[in-house]
Amino acid sequence: MALKGVILDVDGTLVLSNDAHAQAWVEAFAAFGYEVPFENVRPLIGMGGDQIIPQMVSDLNNKEGVGKEISTRRKELILNKFGNELDSANGSRDLVLKMQEQGLHLIIATSATKEELKILLKVAQVDDLLHEATASGDAEHSKPAPDIVEAALAKSQMTPEEVVMIGDTPYDIEAAGKAGVGVIAVRSGGFPDEQLADAIAIYNDPADLLAHYDNSPLAQAA
């Protein structure tokens, strides 16, 4: 079946933000008296707070009490501190433009909140190009659960066979796989190839994918 659309992750894929997210979690936990080492939380980036908080502190969750306050603090740090320090991944805007030129239907699937997503899209220089998205509020569970990918499929009215996802973490690959969607992985999120091994293809970053576009899974567009 010819490719009709692409589901796009943002953090680590279009924006070099994974380290900043990890540091925001470290500082948010510390604000409430919990010492969470950067090296412990960094491998979990790509998941949402519903997954990360109980993995770091087993008796907390992001829905109530201190866990919810930690989640709120992390969001505030991204919006008011780290968001100003982020850089676009190499080639993000050019790749999005190319996919649009090829007639592909593009939709975002991210664990970020809508407020965070607004900042991230500006950093990636694609805020004028990408207008369709599913964010954290559209899914009960974040990646690696398939909820956000399934929400993107439903919103875009595309089937798993008609799309691929571009992501940077093993959680993107797992979530998409559970929804029946193949993933093109990029290394810009900082994950090693062995953790991205279930992707249908791996590239360094959006620019590398664009450079090899004609031989990539994206070239199957109708």
Automatic annotation (TrEMBL):
GO molecular function, one term: hydrolase activity
UniProt organism field: Trichocoleus desertorum GB2-A4
Pfam families: HAD_2
InterPro entries for the chain: HAD-like_hydrolase_sf (IPR050155), HAD-like_sf (IPR036412), HAD-SF_hydro_IA (IPR006439), HAD_2 (IPR041492), HAD_sf (IPR023214), PGP-like_dom2 (IPR023198)
Descriptive protein name: HAD family hydrolase
Top-rank lineage group of the source organism: Bacteria
Gene3D superfamilies associated with the record: HAD superfamily/HAD-like (3.40.50.1000), Putative phosphatase, domain 2 (1.10.150.240)
Keywords annotated in UniProt: Hydrolase
